[in-house]
Design a protein that fits this description.
- This protein has a two-stranded antiparallel ribbon with strand order 1-2.
- The mean pLDDT is 84.
- The protein starts with 7 loop residues before the first helix and ends with a strand.
- The protein is elongated.
- The relative contact order is 0.11.
- It has four helices and two strands.
- By secondary structure, the protein is mostly helical.
C-alpha cells in the first residue's frame, strides 16, 4: 500500500510525530527545572556523576567512562560537588585520588 504525502494517514502520522517531539522537548526542560529547584540545585550531569558513585569510590577516568563525559568536565563537576559537600576526594597511593559519596 502506497500513501501519498497529502493522505489523511500521512498527515495524522506527521501530527503525532510533531506532538511527540514537543513532549520530549518539554520533558527535557521540566527535568532541568526540577534538578535546579532541588535542595542542592544540581544539573543532570552532576546527578549522573552521583549515580555513578553509588556503588563506591571511583577514579575520574572511571567516572568519565561510566557517564560518557570527557575527563576535564568530570573533574570540574566533581570539584563543584565537593564544594557543595556531596562528594569527597580520597587520596590513594600509588593509584592517585578516588572520589566517593560521603
Amino acid at each position: 500500500m502506497h500513501l501519498s504525502s497529502g493522505s489523511p494517514e500521512v498527515v495524522e502520522a506527521q501530527r503525532i510525530e510533531g506532538a511527540a517531539r514537543g513532549l520530549l522537548r518539554g520533558l527535557g526542560h521540566l527535568t532541568q527545572a526540577l534538578f535546579r529547584a532541588g535542595e542542592f540545585a544540581i544539573t543532570r550531569s552532576q546527578a549522573a556523576l552521583l549515580d555513578a558513585l553509588e556503588p563506591g569510590p571511583r577514579r575520574v577516568t572511571e567516572l568519565a567512562a561510566a557517564t560518557g563525559m570527557v575527563q576535564p568536565r568530570v573533574t570540574v563537576m566533581l570539584q563543584k560537588l565537593e564544594e557543595a559537600g556531596l562528594v569527597e576526594r580520597q587520596r590513594c597511593a600509588p593509584t592517585g585520588a578516588r572520589w566517593r559519596r560521603p
